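explain this:

___
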Amino acid sequence: MTPRAAPSRDFDFLIVGGGITGCVMASLLVNRKLAAPGRVAIVAHGALPASIPALADADWDLRVFALSRASQRLLAICGAWQLLPTQKYHAYERMCVWDARSSPLRGDQPRGEPRGGQPQGAGSLSFDCAELGEPNLGYIVEGRALQAACRRAATAAGAIVLIVAGAFLYQQWQLMRLGTRWSAMASKVREVETVKQQIHQYRPWFDESLRALTILRQLTAAFPEDGVVTAKTV
C-alpha cells in the first residue's frame, strides 16, 4: 500500500515523526472522527517499512516492545493489531522485576557472574495474570512488524505520509557547504575582529554609528576659520 497523494497543502493536523506513536495518533484522529481522511499528515523520515507478509517468516528483530493489554486494545482500535502476523507477537503471562545491583559483590562469587539481587528474592516484584483474572499480562511484539503495521494502519485510515528524506539530505548538504565556506573565511573574519578590537582600544572616541560621524563632520564644516572642532561624547 502506498501513501495517498495529498489533495492540497492544507491539513488540520500535522504530526512530525512517522514512528509508532505518530502513526497511532494519526489513526486515532481519523477513526475517532476528530479529523476527516486526508486532513491528517505525518512527516516521516525514510521510506515506508517493508511489507508485513515478507517479515512474517523472517528472524525477529533485536528490538521488541512489551505491550500491556491496554496498549493492545488501543492498537486494535487503530486497526494496526489486525495487521500483525501471529508469528510476530507472543503473549506473556508472568513477569518478575528485580534490581540487579541491590546486593554487594560477595567474596566467593566467581568473576564474571552477575552481581546483585535475584528473581523472587528480596526487593523483587512478581506479576501473574492469574491473580488479575486475565488470560495474559500483555504481548511481546517484534519492532519492525509493529512499526510497519502502525504505518499501514495510518495510511489505511486516510492519513497522508510525507516522506522527507530528500529534504533532510538537502539540509545536510547545505550545512556541509556552509561549513566549508566558513572554514575558508574564518581566518579573515578573525583578522577583521582583531582590527576592530584595536580600533576600540586606541580610539576612545570611536563611534560605530554613521549618523554620529556625520554630525561631527557637519560641526567641523561649521567652523570655516580653521576647519577643526573638538567633540566629546557623553
